[in-house]
Amino acid sequence: LVMLVPELSFLTGLSDLRKNSRMLKEVMCEMIQSPQQHYHRLTSLLRRIRNSPDASRELQRWGLCLDSDIFRTQARILPVERVNLRHRSFLPAEDLGWHREVAKEAPIAVIPLNSWLLMYPKRLQHLAKDLLAAMRSSCGAMGMQVGQPTVQELRDDRIESYVRSIQGSLGSLDKVQLLMCIIPSGRDDVYGAIKKLCCVQSPVPSQVINAQTLTGHPGKIRSVVQKILLQINCKLGGQLWGVDIPL
Question: What is this structure's pTM?
């Protein structure tokens, strides 16, 4: 039995767990807890130590004494900031998230996406079609304009295939606002090669999408596509939201 101190332990990978969504959910529930859950666990630990004769003897041997409650101090809660969109403003919910609002309203500044390139291997053709359909159905409510892309279908998913096609397409097209690539799951090498090419060698805004994020029920895919559209707008120079910052 190996016992690790939680505060000195760090989770370094979830590659195998991602295939098991139930196990991933359980791990995230353990890692992300509310203040109330933290307090309940700490007081439960103190109570167990106090009620354990072995633990009490060990503490006495060390000359230690634990209080029955955690340390309490005076604090205050800062007021919630108002978030401004183009046509309205709102106060975030208790979870301090506002994805639902920005997916239904127009951001402060939107850049039309008219000249862009979509690249994917042939075996992921069905995901590319679903992605385009979801982008068209979501962009209107978000106040974004998404034109028809120049599509480049690759024969395979090798790094060389992506690099050659990107270099050829960027060299032949006049002005490319954005390059979007769909890559197979678990191919960090392909991701790194595309980003290096688009950030260093042939600078162009890029959006690389893992195929796994586009699989699942339509509601999940729609939510993923909405987040992708928000990212794209930022990369093109748009402004999503703002807060009031008085002098």
Answer: 0.71
